[in-house]
Amino acid sequence: MADEDDRRRVRIADLLLRLRQVGVTDRRVVSAIEAVPRDLFVRAEHQDTAYAERALPIDCGQTISAPVVVGMMTAALDVSDRDKVLEIGTGSGYQTAILAKLARRVYTIDRFRTLVKTAEARFETLRLTNITTMVADGAEGWPAQAPFDRIIITAADEAIPEALSEQVRVGGVIVAPVGPVGGVQRLVRLERTEEGMDETFLADVRFVPLIRGVAEHL
Ligand code: SAH
Q1: Helix, strand or coil for residue 11?
Q2: I want to staple 65 with a disulfide (CB 3.0 to 4.6 A). Which of 11, 35, 69, 177 is the partner?
Q3: What backbone phi and psi angles, to 5 degrees, belong to 87?
Q4: Residue to mutate, 60, 109, 110, ligand 1, most ligand atoms under 8 Å from C-beta
């Protein structure tokens, strides 16, 4: 057990170093990432590469994003402890858990019930009590809880779904991959202004697609 904790500490320290190299140095963001053991969010057969700089397969044919991508998205989202955050694409729940350390409350949606159930068990293990989950089509957002201070989309589409642009408050921020399915997408940060959206390019990325509708199986 002590060995396991030591190993985890070393791996997290190494991850924080890599984040620093790409400019993720915000103290709150770094602490949040430090406080969430990524190995809890990957399968038994991927334990050896849990902290490696790559996406890994999870259930339902989906992936957990690479650590530096998660770090960059979290930093770009610029979450305060008063913020209400909406996440589309719960997946493993890793990004959700990090956001829960930073935000007042996180609302997270996935179209696969299996993924939501597994993620919920992890949130419980980590005693994260400020997360609300839903199995639904995230492209429609969460109208009953809108507006949000921050929205993060962890699946790619050619454009930001209109419902989501409408559910972020003026002055709020959306971070999302935008571009072709199966190709290289642009990770962007959008800040909603009175007139529209101010866009900043963050990085080239490859995410699994945002798919409309709730998954029929699983
Ligand atoms: N942040 C997650 C990434 C998961 S991959 C992690 O790091 O583990 C993207 C996720 O988006 C998948 O779980 C997929 O099921 C989900 N997804 C795709 N389209 C969706 C939609 N329309 N609504 C909700 N979730 C969706």
Answers
A1: helix
A2: 69
A3: -115, 130
A4: 110
| Closest residue to atom 11 of ligand 1, CA basis | 89
- Note the pTM of the prediction, 2 decimals: 0.97
CATH fold, domain 2-205, is Rossmann fold (3.40.50)
Q: CA torsion 144→119→175→134, rounded to 10°?
A: -20
Q: For residue 27, give both structure tokens.
A: 């103290």
Which residues carry out catalysis? 65
Give the CA dihedral 171, 99, 109, 176, nearest 10 degrees. 50
Extents of the domains making up the chain: 2-205
pLDDT digits (tens, 9 = 90+) for 184-193: 999 999 999 9
Q: In the predicted model, what is the mean pLDDT of the chain?
A: 97
